[in-house]
Amino acid sequence: MPKRLTERIKPDSIDEFVAAACERYSDGIALAAQARRTGAIYLFGYSAEMVMKAAYFRAIGVSARTKLEMGSHLWPAVTQAKQLGVNWPKHHNLHYVQGWAELLVVTQKNLLTTSQPPLVSAYADPSFGQRVTFHATTVQNLWTESLRYHKNRAYEFELRRMQSSVSWLMTSLPQL
Questions:
Q1: What is the DSSP code (8-state) at residue 61?
Q2: Contact 175, 128 (CB under 8 A)
């Protein structure tokens, strides 16, 4: 008998976040095509969250297959964000897309100012970080993980805005 879906889940890692972000993004595209706008936004939001987490952990040098643990990776990243001046409201927990983006950008900026040439991962274009936070903020303003508990129907313009920002983040992942 095949293993159940929940038994086939791999541990969180950069590779798993990227693969899952691509899957949820494709799911969101399919829902958008069926005019299931809120469901599409819900899945797009998770895609953005996973992209931001993957990019941050890659930026700090975590191996792509390293198991990302709550106590040794995820919560310490939130603590690091707060120490670096990122406003991380308590109610956002680990789903704060805007916070992950701001943490990523400030981390990249710190790499730029502390690294010796040649730079490995700092942004070549200084305005790129602004675009990262712009798109992540757009996502944050349209998405919360608690959408699943509500029957609200997203407007078409909200879906277009969300899809555009998440598409940009997905396409930009190699540069993040």
A1: T
A2: yes
Q: Mean pLDDT in the chain?
A: 93
State the Cα–Cα distance between residues 41 and 29, nearest whole angstrom: 9
Cα distance between residue 78 and residue 94, in whole Å: 8
> Is the pTM for the entire model greater than 0.90?
yes
**Contacts of 78-86 spanning 24+ positions with Cβ under 8 A:** 81/106, 84/110
Residue range 41-91, pLDDT digits in tens: 999 999 999 999 999 999 999 999 999 999 999 999 999 999 999 999 988
Answer yes or no: are the C-beta atoms of 157 and 16 closer than 8 Å: no
Q: Is 87 helix (H, G, I), strand (E, B) or coil?
A: coil
User: Would you tell me how many other CB atoms lie within 10 Å of the CB of residue 91?
Assistant: 9
Helices (H), 34-90: 37-59, 75-83
Locate all alpha helices (DSSP H) within 34-155, ordered by sequence: 37-59, 75-83, 97-114, 126-142
Coil, strand or helix at 169: helix
